[in-house]
């Protein structure tokens, strides 16, 4: 990308906070210095996940999605808070540490060649994907009943101890359930968990909607059942899907024209090339919105002008329409924007700013319209935002008014700020301090509250001028003003996390 003067843009985001390396885990919780006041009713653990280190020995990862998974825990009790962090002890992590180099291929990073591995070894590995694919579960954390798991888009997931952050066991869902899945399952009010993935059924690739029925104690995976099946629009180039939606009557899937070439993906496993090379953007094709009936499994497709997305904000049914809200991009360049070299060298480029410029859009889908009806969208607010969260407990799949996110317009003077968006009016509330870089905002409902924004928003905050500090910020969700914070001094740089989950004390001690 040329970086001529006319193509330069003022960048207000310090991207160095994204590239920090944690050199020392914090095994024993450390106490935070409290300023302001943490409401006494906020009790539990904010668990976070994300890349914690981008190098192994002298080798370096090439993409944000590749860094070694680092788990974080903020424990909150009686107006106090502690912090700890620990690397996920995946097979990938252990192999790399033993070799002191990157020996497992990641999304955008090729493994160092293994001179002892023959072409026959590489070919036979195709039949044992769970033994050879990366299991670096670096994206998110979700509860399955009384168990807690770290996830990525490869269905090799890890149960973790929500108190100590120890890695407890690995679950292989590839052989029995799906060969890919999203990193964002949905939790039903009754405790059931739903996710979307792909598998080969009778020789044909299918998109599967999988239900994990709730169990009060123990394994929810043995009783997994397929509750929906969709034929992908492109059999040998299935579309990348990071999240999905769910309402009372429908599962909502979005097939964007970012295709994964099956043949190239298989080749990558043999040649140990990075898997990103198997992805291709097809801008000439529409994006498809798919509704799958939760009653009879029927499938209806709609079309919308080409967009790329990572995260659905929310969706709900109203009158004769299904309303779908998403953070959308014009194309898939945001994937390129997360390459380490792009972060280091291109962030002052006007094109780079455009790559990051997502917008929250609403799609009003007429339920009675014919198959393949074209659906247009409307802007919810003219602000770039990502990492959207809502009052999930009461309003997921329901009509709602607010979501919370991070401003993603890197050319904005409040780039990286926390934002509260009123989807009915477009009104914005923001929180930002100089040199601050908050993480995904997580809404916690006040016990007994019925109003949508009656609660607090939690966010882990980094500081560009102090890499050995991390704060737990507590905002009043209604006013979006700070109530208090806990500040922690870390023995090595504090990395930026991606996604997480709040567990109440009752969940942890049950």
Automatic annotation (TrEMBL):
<comment type="similarity">
    <text>Belongs to the carotenoid oxygenase family.</text>
</comment>
<feature type="binding site">
    <location>
        <position position="311"/>
    </location>
    <ligand>
        <name>Fe cation</name>
    </ligand>
</feature>
<dbReference type="GO" id="GO:0003834">
    <property type="term" value="F:beta-carotene 15,15'-dioxygenase activity"/>
</dbReference>
<dbReference type="GO" id="GO:0046872">
    <property type="term" value="F:metal ion binding"/>
</dbReference>
<feature type="binding site">
    <location>
        <position position="499"/>
    </location>
    <ligand>
        <name>Fe cation</name>
    </ligand>
</feature>
<keyword id="KW-0560">Oxidoreductase</keyword>
<protein>
    <recommendedName>
        <fullName>Carotenoid isomerooxygenase</fullName>
    </recommendedName>
</protein>
<dbReference type="InterPro" id="IPR004294">
    <property type="entry name" value="Carotenoid_Oase"/>
</dbReference>
<feature type="binding site">
    <location>
        <position position="184"/>
    </location>
    <ligand>
        <name>Fe cation</name>
    </ligand>
</feature>
<feature type="binding site">
    <location>
        <position position="242"/>
    </location>
    <ligand>
        <name>Fe cation</name>
    </ligand>
</feature>
<keyword id="KW-0479">Metal-binding</keyword>
<dbReference type="GO" id="GO:0010436">
    <property type="term" value="F:carotenoid dioxygenase activity"/>
</dbReference>
<keyword id="KW-0408">Iron</keyword>
<dbReference type="Pfam" id="PF03055">
    <property type="entry name" value="RPE65"/>
</dbReference>
<dbReference type="GO" id="GO:0016121">
    <property type="term" value="P:carotene catabolic process"/>
</dbReference>
<dbReference type="GO" id="GO:0042574">
    <property type="term" value="P:retinal metabolic process"/>
</dbReference>
